[in-house]
Amino acid sequence: MDTKTLTDAIRYVALAIILMLAPRPAEAQDSLIKTKKQAELILPRPMLQPMKSMDLSGQVPMDTLSTADSTVKILLFADNTWKYIKDPSRAQNNTVFNEFWEHTLPNPYKVSDETLPSEIALWIVDSLGGYRCPNQTKVYSKFGYRHRRRHMGVDLPLNIGTPVYAAFDGRVRIAHRYKAYGNLVIIRHENGLETFYGHLSKIMVEEDEWVSAGSIIGLGGSTGRSTGPHLHFETRYKGYAFDPEWLIDFESGTLRHRVFVLKKKYLNASSRYVPESEQEEIDIEEGDARDKAEAARKEEEARKAAAAMQYHTIRQGDTLGALAKKYHTTVRALCQLNGIKETTLLQLGKKIRVK
Fold first, then answer.
1. Which residues contact 174 (CB under 8 A, 6 or more apart)?
2. Alpha carbons 306 and 291: distance in angstroms, whole number
3. How far apart are CA 269 and CA 42, in angstroms?
4. CA–CA separation, 48 vs 46, rounded Å?
5. CA distance 101 to 70
6. Which tens digits make up the pLDDT trace of 252-309?
7. Which residue in 45, 86, 234, 284 has the fewest CB atoms around it within 10 Å?
8. What is d(CA 42, CA 26) in angstroms, rounded to the nearest whole number?
9. In sequence order, what E strands does 25-182 have?
10. How confident is the model over 166-214, as pLDDT tens digits?
């Protein structure tokens, strides 16, 4: 047995051991999950701690191995590392790439925000999907209102010609020049999110093309309505933009969540990312629940009180004393209920509260 054959044999044996210990590839699953609890119960179980941007330097592909799932391969690198890769055919039957799929408008959705749930837990990455920061740098223009106009994403400074990376695996929906965005690439991902990459100097992908996280999809530039070279990056769900900093710490390149709970309130133009601990978020939600319960209790009390109110229409001969006797109350109580005095003259036809 020559040296090359022996080396290959050792590599395959080592890989087999790794695969026995590694989590199984993800089975086909819905990416839309109603609660974070549900998300955590679905395999592959996520590592919930933050995930660093992929470092592709020095990774030279050496070989591809098949798995039990024909749409999932194992890619071997020269440094003896490996990762799962998905065949684009895996996504062909996913309805997310068929519904509202068109190449003209950045927002093809016709979805009312009233139909969206208050929160949705979304898989961002799992054992079959990676992540790379589109452009690791400090955000210099944040999400929200800017000069009284809504800024739908974040601006990330970069030099013209700097590679811009796909943040996650997905399919390119738009790859052309569009108005103020200049050269624009929009990628839709299997969880329903879309990421926008604007002001590119050059587009390096085509519409309907499948791209993996870390693929170079264009080069930084200043096309469209731009005051200087930068990447305009957006994250949207069903056409509604939310602050990308809920997902990514751009300065460190870290993905904040592997399973992200998208709250409907994040879709508000003024809802910027606010660093908060999970316990703070729980405290806020529990406080909101208490406030709602208290408001409901007061509303019910008011309804019962309104239902218990009783009125009498003044007729000829009615006096406060006679009405107090008839309705088993006192003249003083009648005066307090109606804001009148004992000497007030009662007007015929006018209603007076008696309970």
1. 103, 104, 106, 184, 185, 186, 207
2. 22
3. 32
4. 6
5. 26
6. 999 988 888 898 888 877 776 665 444 544 554 566 567 667 778 888 887 887 777 8
7. 284
8. 9
9. 32-33, 61-66, 72-77, 82-86, 119-123, 144-146, 149-151, 154-157, 163-165, 170-177
10. 999 999 999 999 999 999 999 999 999 999 999 999 999 999 999 989 9
